[in-house]
């Protein structure tokens, strides 16, 4: 009978294995969201200030008409 009463009591969520896994998942999800937003902001900034890319535009050579 005492074993049944002990089993009825459960550990708090934060001390259970499932609780740790869920908190880690939440932390990594939050970290992934922050990294995605930072990556998007950096790409937007790069395209805004340098839309043509890293290469410089060279003037087109004019055809020589004789």
From TrEMBL:
Q: Which UniProt keywords apply?
A: Membrane, Transmembrane, Transmembrane helix
Which residue ranges does UniProt annotate as crossing the membrane? 26-44
The name this protein carries in UniProt is Chemokine like factor
Species assigned in the record: Propithecus coquereli (Coquerel's sifaka)
């Amino acid at each position: 009978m005492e074993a049944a009463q002990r089993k009825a009591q459960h550990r708090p969520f934060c001390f259970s294995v499932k609780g740790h896994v869920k908190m880690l998942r939440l932390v990594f999800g939050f970290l992934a969201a922050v990294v995605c937003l930072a990556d998007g902001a950096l790409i937007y900034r790069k395209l805004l200030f340098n839309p043509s890319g890293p290469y410089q535009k060279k003037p087109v050579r004019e055809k020589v008409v004789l």
